[in-house]
Write a structure and sequence with these properties.
- The complex is a heterodimer of chains A (368) and B (124).
- With 368 residues, chain A is mainly alpha-helical.
- Helices cover 67% and strands 0% of the residues of chain A.
- Chain A has one domain.
- In chain A, helix 5 runs parallel beside helix 13 and helix 12 packs antiparallel against helix 13.
- Chain B has a domain of 70 residues.
- Chain B starts with 5 loop residues before the first helix and ends in a 7-residue tail after the last helix.
- Classes of the chains: A mainly alpha (368), B mainly alpha (124).
- At the A-B interface, helix 3, helix 5, helix 8, helix 13 and helix 15 of A face helix 1, helix 2, helix 3, helix 4 and helix 5 of B.
């Protein structure tokens, strides 16, 4: 912490930093270093969460704008220049709405359910790397951690539906939970194939492994990323992320125009937390696709430098794809959703696992 | 080793705060004027006439049981997949390490085919 501060602070403040460190040392003695570590970690965590929440707010805005343009409308344009303050106005409105707790609801579970939906979607960011060294916790099983944490969010949905004491919410939560767990299998299987060729559970290693190969040597990095040799897995994973996040064309959890979803009884800020959860899960999904299949922070061409910019660029491009899908595709019927997950994706994953296995056993193995 | 997980712990706590704080703020700041109509469960304007925690389709159970099976399969595949490159690089276990897992997957595929044939995956 002190090293970083010495780098970024202007010169005239450095003596004060030394005095402050001495003062802390005298006040707390041996515990001072531990306190510094905790404070520094908290600062770093806030530096991830705060931009993330801002990003979530402006993703809702970007979605409305982009879909507006696709439908030859203007989109929100009243609050602030070009409507730029719209997300803040929406937040303020939700803040001033009553948080209703329906009669017969299990009060505690009802209030804790949005937290179960929201926290896991944020939590995975603890191990998401932004570049080779820019990662909060570079744990060696980070992909396993992400898989474990993101599957908690299904509890939020089940608890919300069960505790609301409303038939629509209950049935909606059953529907959404079944949809989410169905696609989790396909997602897990496609990640297994990624692991086979990466030889590591660490996301940093997985990204670095993508930068090797014949195409990368020719300077065509984007052809050596996982999406090309694992094209079917890439498609399966992308579509599964759509389904996991409950995004169009798999937005049956919400289905705002005809069917009622699990959060029908929620209002005000507790509804807003569900909304935050949906959008942060979506941003997390784009980050995972970029890291696992699209080379993360590595640049598409050898002559351009790698940097976190490329990760954000890929995430933004994928977000636009999410919006695009919502503006383009009609909603799937429920039996179609389940059929796609169970009868198409799982066989595709198993077959491709077999193919990649044989490929790696053969003399033409490109992942040495 | 364990101290690399310390930021994760801090992240859990701060993440919980960010989940709980908006709800509490909302309850404090927003007006609180409940009435029976407002608090009644949503049922398209009708009075709710039975408990909402009712019986539901058995296929949801079936899906969740199948999910547990296949997710366990994935859990068993993950450690194997993580070291698959090393298996391929080691001549002595190269073939065995691959076929062993194929047999494991094949057993599950038999169960999968059975569930499919029995209509366990249908929703019509």
């Amino acid at each position: 912490m002190v090293d970083t501060l010495q780098l970024i602070l202007p010169g005239f403040l450095l003596p004060y930093l030394d005095r402050f460190m001495q003062f802390g040392q005298e006040l707390f003695g041996g515990a001072w270093q531990d306190i510094l570590t905790v404070v520094w970690t908290v600062i770093k965590v806030m530096l991830i969460i705060a931009p993330l929440l801002l990003g979530v707010a402006y993703t809702t805005f970007a979605e409305r704008k982009v879909i507006g343009w696709m439908q030859v409308r203007i989109g929100p344009n009243r609050v602030g220049p070009w409507g730029l303050i719209q997300p803040l106005a929406d937040g303020l409105k939700l803040l001033l709405k009553e948080v209703t707790i329906p009669s017969g609801a299990d009060k505690f579970v009802f209030l804790i359910a949005p937290v179960f939906a929201f926290t896991p979607a944020v939590l995975a960011w603890a191990v998401i790397p932004f570049s080779d060294f820019l990662v909060l916790a570079n744990v060696n099983a980070s992909l396993l951690f992400i898989m474990a944490v993101t599957s908690i969010s299904v509890y939020g949905i089940i608890l919300a539906g069960w505790s609301s004491n409303s038939k629509y919410a209950f049935l909606g939560s059953m529907r959404s939970a079944a949809q989410m767990i169905s696609y989790e299998v396909a997602m897990g299987l496609s990640l297994v194939v990624v692991l086979m060729i990466s030889n590591s559970l660490n996301v940093v290693d997985i990204v670095q492994a993508q930068g090797q190969g014949r195409f990368a040597d020719m300077g065509l990095n984007f052809l050596s990323w996982n999406w090309l040799p694992l094209l079917p897995m890439f498609v399966v994973y992308l579509v599964s992320i759509f389904a996991e996040c409950g995004r169009a064309p798999f937005d049956l959890p919400e289905g705002e125009s005809e069917i009622v979803g699990y959060h029908v009884e929620y209002a005000g800020m507790s509804f807003a937390v569900f909304q935050l959860a949906e959008y942060s899960a979506m941003i997390l999904g784009t980050a995972l696709i970029s890291l696992l299949f699209l080379g993360g922070w590595s640049s598409p061409f050898g002559f351009l430098p790698d940097s976190a910019f490329w990760l954000f660029f890929k995430m933004f491009a994928l977000l636009v794809v999410f919006f695009w899908a919502r503006a383009t595709f009609p909603r799937y019927r429920y039996d179609q959703v389940m059929r796609l997950g169970w009868k198409v994706f799982i066989p595709v994953c198993l077959v491709w696992l077999l193919i990649v296995g044989c490929w790696m056993m053969s003399p033409w193995n490109i992942w040495k | 080793m364990l101290e690399t997980y310390f930021p994760v712990l801090v992240f859990v706590l701060i993440g919980l705060v960010f989940g709980i704080a908006p709800v509490i703020t909302g309850m404090v700041v927003a007006p609180h004027r409940p009435n029976p109509e407002k608090l009644s469960p949503y049922e398209c304007g009708f009075e709710a006439f039975e408990d909402a925690r009712m019986k539901f389709d058995v296929r949801y159970y079936l899906i969740s049981i199948l999910f547990i099976l296949f997710d366990l399969e994935v859990a068993f595949l993950v450690p194997w997949a993580t070291i698959f490159k090393e298996i391929v690089a080691t001549e002595s276990i190269k073939f065995f390490g691959f076929v062993e897992m194929i047999v494991f997957i094949a057993i599950l595929v038999v169960g999968y085919a059975y569930a499919w044939a029995k209509g366990g995956l249908d929703w019509e």
